[in-house]
Amino acid sequence: MNKKIAGESIRWGILGVGDVCEVKSAPAMQLIDDSSLVAVMRRNGDKAADYARRHNVPKWYDNADQLINDPDINAVYIATPPNAHAELTRKVAEAGKPVYVEKPMARTDEECEMMIQACEQHSVPLYVAYYRRCLPNFLKIKALVDGGVLGDIRGVQISLLKTAELYQPVEDQNWRVDPSIAGAGYFFDLASHQLDFLDYLLGPIAETNGFATNQASAYEAEDIVSGSFAFESGVLGMGMWCFTTAQVATEEVTTLIGSKGTIKYQNFGDNKVILETDKGGREVFEFEMPKHIQQPLIQTVVDDLLGRGTCPSTGVSAARTNRVMSKMVI
């Protein structure tokens, strides 16, 4: 059974306090009841110190082991690029502390399994930052689907088409297109959010096929992926992800197709949910997002650790998303 922290408060330490920690995630740790941010770490000590000063964090480190073993910290957020996730998760688990790790969970299926096993061995929870599982627009989609508004779900279509302007050279530290760091390219970075939410919405994917290649030769990683997948429930899906299209071709939309209607939504653009049914016509739902986009999910992590709730995004669920992506880029 995983170790909880019932009766205490959650005292966070962060490994890799970079851009994602400026607004999206870390500030929420200081706003949630019974949660505080105690220390941050970055290999560049000056940048770690600067972050701590600007965000009123008591302590900073330039060494991961020192933060992990700080007795004032009882939970660790790993916000580094994916190449460090497996090893840092192992170290945090060995220290007996719960782990909250950025997405994608790791570079490979094997690394995901290593992370799960390390946390199970040391009886600590493992959570992954797939925060769309807790945002209001995505919860609305889930409520509509679970409520039968679309009838029986037949299929899902994903289209994510971006221009090459998204890319910046690796020498400018764009690790997202360096497979040795990210595991793949933008597909792992962006499609992971889309596919993870579908796992939450429709259940696990049972079978996956895909094709991936590099057409523009702007960087080492794949820049186009086409995939098809079948959920355990029998729902079928397909997707196209391309990061070198013309501006006029850019598009980002996911379509859920049911026996009574459709839902269209974006993962990275606006926050509208568009419902169309044979009997009800077209309805548009709009939502305001939280300032700190990960706060609703981090709230569930805190609640889970304190024994007063459950977090919907775990290492087990996140590893499923990694497996689906890996099969598409083989």
Computed CA radius of gyration, to the nearest angstrom: 20 Å
Give the neighbour order of strands across the main sheet.
8-9-10-7-11-12-13-14
- Tell me the domain tally: 2
CATH superfamily of the largest domain: Dihydrodipicolinate Reductase, domain 2
Number of strands: 14
What multimeric state do the chains show? single chain
> How much helix, percentage-wise, in residues?
25-40%
Structural class label = alpha/beta
Count of helix runs? 10
Pattern of helices and strands: EHEHEHEHEHEHEHHEEEEEEEHH
CATH topology of the largest domain: Dihydrodipicolinate Reductase, domain 2
What's the overall geometry? globular
How would you characterize the largest beta sheet? 8 strands, mixed
Rounded mean pLDDT is 95
Distance between the termini: 35 Å
Query: Low-confidence parts, pLDDT < 50 over ≥5 residues?
Result: none
In percent terms, what proportion of residues is strand?
Answer: 25-35%
CATH architecture of the largest domain: 2-Layer Sandwich
Detailed description of the structure:
The protein is of the alpha/beta class and 330 residues long. It folds into two domains: 10-132, NAD(P)-binding Rossmann-like Domain (Rossmann fold, 3-Layer(aba) Sandwich); 136-289, Dihydrodipicolinate Reductase, domain 2. Helix content is 30%, strand content 26%. It is built from ten helices and 14 strands. It has helices at residues 26-29, 45-54, 64-68, 85-94, 109-121, 136-146, 179-182, 186-202, 295-305, 315-329, and strands at residues 10-15, 35-41, 59-61, 75-78, 99-101, 126-128, 153-163, 205-213, 224-231, 236-245, 251-258, 261-265, 273-277, 281-285. The strands form two sheets. An eight-stranded mixed β-sheet has the order 8-9-10-7-11-12-13-14, with helices on one face. Strand 11 and strand 12 form a beta hairpin. Helix 4 packs parallel to helix 5 (109-121), helix 5 runs antiparallel to helix 10 (315-329) and helix 8 (186-202) crosses helix 10 (315-329).
